[in-house]
């Protein structure tokens, strides 16, 4: 029985919904504000910040093909479950494949971190050294049609409502 996650741009919150059957089409109303403009999120292990379009939200859509993104996540899900957490090369390889499958490119700081992981460096050491760069105001990905280091964040990361709602 699946649990689906949806993002509400109005509330800047991610909500979890329980479904008794597989349902890839239903989009619920936001439990907090009632918005019908919820966006389905990717599973937690590979979550991207997503925004919702609409006159009242002031946000723009991610410039990605959502079905391509879902296919990439599905294709890599099994591999992600069998990663050796002690081998940074495996994690870097998986992240590269995800980027290739979705058409995303890494921002400059993230690209440097990826190269270092591919060389076998400890991710915690990389984060300790590069933490300020990696946590700067830039997104980790450069979206298609953009140059440089990714989109500037215009709002804080979304909150996560821990309650489980019915779909």
How far is it from the N-terminal to the C-terminal residue, by CA? 11 Å
Largest sheet: 4 strands, mixed
The average pLDDT value, as a whole number, equals: 75
Radius of gyration: 17 Å
What percentage of the residues does DSSP assign to strands (E)?
15-25%
How many beta-strand segments?
6
Total helical segments: 4
| Number of domain modules | 2
Task: Choose one word for the global shape.
Answer: globular
Share of helix among residues?
A: 25-40%
Supply the helix-strand structural class: alpha+beta
Taken in chain order, the helices and strands follow as EEEHHEHHEE
Quick overview of this protein structure:
This protein has 4 helices and 6 strands, in the order βββααβααββ. It has 167 residues and is α+β, with helices and mostly antiparallel strands. It has 2 domains: 77 residues, no CATH class; 77 residues, no CATH class.
Task: Describe the structure in your own words.
By secondary structure, this protein is α+β, with helices and mostly antiparallel strands. The protein has two domains: 1-63 and 154-167, no CATH class; 66-142, no CATH class. The chain is built from four helices and six strands. It has helices spanning 66-81, 88-102, 108-118, 123-134; strands at 3-8, 13-18, 39-40, 105-106, 141-142, 159-166. The strands form two sheets. A four-stranded mixed β-sheet has the order 3-1-2-6, with no helix packed on it. It has a two-stranded antiparallel ribbon with strand order 4-5. The model is unreliable at 45-61 and 148-153 (pLDDT under 50).
């Amino acid at each position: 029985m699946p649990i689906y996650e949806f993002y509400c741009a109005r509330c800047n919150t991610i909500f979890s919904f329980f479904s008794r059957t597989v349902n890839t089409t239903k989009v619920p109303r936001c439990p907090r504000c009632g918005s019908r403009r919820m966006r389905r999120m990717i599973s937690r292990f590979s979550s991207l910040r997503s925004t919702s379009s609409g006159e009242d939200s002031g946000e723009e859509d991610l410039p990605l093909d959502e079905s391509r993104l879902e296919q990439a996540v599905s294709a890599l899900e099994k591999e992600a479950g069998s990663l050796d957490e002690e081998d940074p090369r495996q994690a870097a390889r998986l992240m590269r494949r995800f980027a290739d499958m979705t058409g995303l490119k890494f921002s400059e700081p993230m690209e440097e971190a990826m190269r270092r992981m591919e060389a076998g460096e400890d991710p915690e050491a990389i984060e300790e050294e590069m933490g300020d760069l990696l946590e700067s105001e830039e997104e980790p990905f450069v979206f298609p049609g953009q140059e440089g280091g990714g989109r500037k964040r215009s709002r804080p990361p979304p909150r996560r409502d821990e309650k489980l709602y019915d779909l």
